[in-house]
């Protein structure tokens, strides 16, 4: 140990290193002191990997990557990396402590906000040619004041390094298929792991739960993760399955090409613009029928439609709608039957919104949702009185 750093208690342990809380006597501050385990002091392979971790992390100066203060060898020969001390909780522990509450829109929103910052860290690393290779919830630290750090770059690699990447490294429960097969490691490998981390946030379990490492590796090689609807049923947050489906495909070419693309979809999900299912209607086809039960609303993507209502035994045209217009939402809010008929005028393309999707977007079960529902009911009551005159 150098005279500068005074080691205190152990705060973490990895495969080849231990992290200690240490006091920096010169700058009078507590730091995180990562030291190579004694049994690896004479292993050139482990010393080289530890040195590479220090250099890689030290070169990645980003708000969501822990800063490296110093790297060196103590007087007793121990290799160390001195870093900023981050106190808080891992994303893994946050999900576990939340339990089923993780699926509450506000809690899920918090977790996605955390992942957006992880996206920034990964995008920066990828711009420098560095792939993390071990992204998982336990390697994401959230500080006491909302700071988010992507930790543990010990197995990170530069994708252009000579000789390629042929070692099986990472955590089997979150691995991309190409990590197991040793083929084609690149930024999309981290995209898969980011999707796997999102999967953990939603389901509370890893994509490949094992129970043994060999079984997890076999599942990872086959990309055999269980879809959200099979794990959660109707509790699955709408739209997340689409993001996972694109991030966690077996073929890297079918994934998001960059973390930035995935971040865009996560951000849109967070803002309520989900990947909604689409539907097409031929000219003259009825979309909704007056008097029928209503459990869907529609956003017009292309084409036009006409809205009619039976008044005094006659079908009266109320309005025509085109791209960007919305219809059917009142029946969802009020849970009453349709008050009018909507018919496609020409080829009509729509996005379909269910009550569940709308509830997740507006919080229909919250006080805000109650206000929205009450206003919708008052509008329907006023409309009914108008037509009774």
Could you walk me through the main structural features you see in this protein, from its secondary elements to its overall organization?
This protein has 389 residues and is an alpha+beta fold. It has 3 domains: 5-84, Phosphorylase Kinase, domain 1 (2-Layer Sandwich), CATH 3.30.200.20; 88-270, Transferase(Phosphotransferase) domain 1 (Transferase(Phosphotransferase), domain 1); 278-388, Jelly Rolls (Sandwich). The chain contains 12 helices and 18 strands. It has helices at residues 44-59, 91-98, 105-127, 177-181, 187-203, 213-222, 228-232, 240-247, 259-270, 329-334, 355-362, 367-388, and strands at residues 5-13, 17-24, 29-36, 68-73, 79-84, 88-90, 130-131, 140-143, 148-150, 157-158, 278-281, 286-288, 296-302, 305-311, 314-321, 326-327, 341-344, 348-354. The protein has a 5-stranded antiparallel sheet, with helices on one face. It has a 4-stranded antiparallel sheet with strand order 11-18-13-16. Helix 3 (105-127) packs antiparallel against helix 5 and helix 3 packs antiparallel against helix 9 (259-270). The protein is elongated and about 95 Å long. The model is unreliable at 162-166 (pLDDT under 50).
